[in-house]
């Protein structure tokens, strides 16, 4: 929840500078990396 509160303003700021299609790829990459880290942490932690 706190992470979302941190990323939301950064996302709004980035959207002003990054092209929409690139922004979508960036968001998907961040979500994938976050999910992978959570899975890795749960599996090997």
Give a quick summary of the entry.
The chain is mainly α.
Mind explaining what this structure looks like?
The chain contains 2 helices and no strands. The protein has helices at about 1-15, 20-45. The two termini are about 20 Å apart.
What radius of gyration results from the CA coordinates? 13 Å
- How many strands in all? 0
Distance between the termini: 21 Å
Question: Main beta sheet, described?
Answer: none
Supply the helix-strand structural class.
mainly alpha
Total helix count? Answer: 2
Order of helices and strands: HH
Mean pLDDT: 81
Shape: elongated
User: What percent strand?
Assistant: under 5%
Low-confidence stretches: none
């Amino acid at each position: 929840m706190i992470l979302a509160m941190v990323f939301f303003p950064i996302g709004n700021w980035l959207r002003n500078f990054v092209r929409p299609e690139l922004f979508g790829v960036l968001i998907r990459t961040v979500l994938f990396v976050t999910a992978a880290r959570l899975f890795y942490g749960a599996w090997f932690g």
